[in-house]
Amino acid sequence: MFTPKQVDYWTRIDRIAEEPPQLSFTFINETLLAELEAKDNELTEYIFGQPD
């Protein structure tokens, strides 16, 4: 049985994947996770040219 949050999550994945179908699940998932981190103020500055 699915919880409402799981249904919402997979519905968002489906909607996003329909737009540009060439996007991978990994890209979509990481983008959604980044969105949640931004909402929780868990952001770090990205400096180009420096390794992760």
Task: Give the SSE layout.
Layout: H1 4-18, H2 25-39
Q: How would you sum up this structure, described in words?
A:
By secondary structure, this protein is mostly helical. 58% of the residues lie in helices and 0% in strands. The model has no long low-confidence stretch (mean pLDDT 85).
Give a brief rundown of this model:
Helices cover 58% and strands 0% of the residues. It is mainly α.
List keywords for this structure.
single chain; 52 residues; mainly alpha; 2 helices; flat; ParD-like
Radius of gyration: 14 Å
Unreliable segments (pLDDT under 50, ≥5 consecutive)? none
The main sheet comes to:
none
What is the average of the pLDDT values?
85
Strand content: under 5%
- Structural class call reads mainly alpha
Helix content percent band: 55-70%
Summed up, the helix count is 2
How far is the N terminus from the C terminus? Answer: 38 Å
What sort of overall outline do the alpha carbons produce when their principal axes are compared? Answer: flat
Please report the total strand number as a whole number: 0
Order of helices and strands: HH
Pfam families: ParD_like
InterPro entries: ParD-like (IPR021831)
